[in-house]
User: Fold this.
Amino acid sequence: MKKTNGRWIIVILLFFATTINYMDRAIIGVAGPSMMEDLSLSAVEFGILGSAFFWSYALMQVPVGVIVDKLGARLTYAVAIVWWSLCTIFIAFGRSIGTLIGFRILMGIGEAPAFPTNTRVISDWLPTRERGIANGIFNSGTAIGIGLTTPLIAWVIENWGWKASFIGIGSIGFIWLLFWLHYFRNHPHQSAIANEAEVEYIEAGKIDTNQKTTKMASPFQFLKYKSAWGLLFGLFAHNYLTYLMMTWLPTYLELKEK
Assistant:
């Protein structure tokens, strides 16, 4: 029996989910000048609004890892994308800085499960030898979501206003959800898109960790290694520049022109 390639359909779904995730994050940077003018927000207030998302997003990273292990990737992602899409849409109706900050904090909670869930899906659906390229595919959605869609967001704002950008982009997540619920199951053998040959191929390609000697370690123990500090610094530097450009650079460039 020739094996199917259903696992790559799942990887493509993860790619689009990641793209949507970063599209929703990127809106506020492009919509910033219009929001500040319409809602009379100062630069300090807008800075707080831009950072509010990360307060809850950072704090929720560890808990959502536990949640996806308990509830499974299918339900976790479904709830997460509905949550963050609604929060994105609701921002269009916020009229006070307090309300907007609240929606951004809730949005951070909703988006937090995305990468832990992506990782769990890759682990369950891909043999070890294919996980590198699968991770590369879904991670490319971050660049697509920020870069190639920013002109689209700007065009929507130019023609229909900043509120329409949050409503329109936020609604895309519900379209993705239909495909997710139709195609995805927590394990390949539960899905109709992966035949028996593909399931056997996936399982045969996984490293059997049960036969290896493993040690449980506290996350703080990794801080004893210099390589861990290098990784942490690299991620910090990358995220600082990425989110600076995402949240402030578009606003800065537009305000400078004025």
The chain has one domain: 6-257. The two ends are 65 Å apart (CA to CA). The chain has twelve helices and no strands.
